[in-house]
């Protein structure tokens, strides 16, 4: 078994696509109509055949409640690995990204938490 797509609830697909591609640097793989919404997936640069991140509309009340509650509780919706958290933090701050946690070392990991402007907290981690 292999993970091929994982989804992330977003409150605005277009805004999320812009943030995840233009700011974070993911590569758009699919952008297809899906009823009143779109099937938008992104992949890591250089890994176009890898796991796809689906920008899932949070139009269902359960999705909205879940997204809101974990955000309010400070729980990241997902985690992305980076080579150097400090450098990525500095790059993203220059792009206006807001962080709820600055780079923090814990044992062999360094991580930070950012606000994706689409209803989620995202953790970046360096192993």
UniProtKB/TrEMBL annotation:
<dbReference type="InterPro" id="IPR037523">
    <property type="entry name" value="VOC_core"/>
</dbReference>
<dbReference type="GO" id="GO:0016829">
    <property type="term" value="F:lyase activity"/>
</dbReference>
<dbReference type="InterPro" id="IPR029068">
    <property type="entry name" value="Glyas_Bleomycin-R_OHBP_Dase"/>
</dbReference>
<protein>
    <submittedName>
        <fullName>Putative enzyme related to lactoylglutathione lyase</fullName>
    </submittedName>
</protein>
<feature type="domain" description="VOC">
    <location>
        <begin position="1"/>
        <end position="127"/>
    </location>
</feature>
<dbReference type="InterPro" id="IPR004360">
    <property type="entry name" value="Glyas_Fos-R_dOase_dom"/>
</dbReference>
<dbReference type="Pfam" id="PF00903">
    <property type="entry name" value="Glyoxalase"/>
</dbReference>
<keyword id="KW-0456">Lyase</keyword>
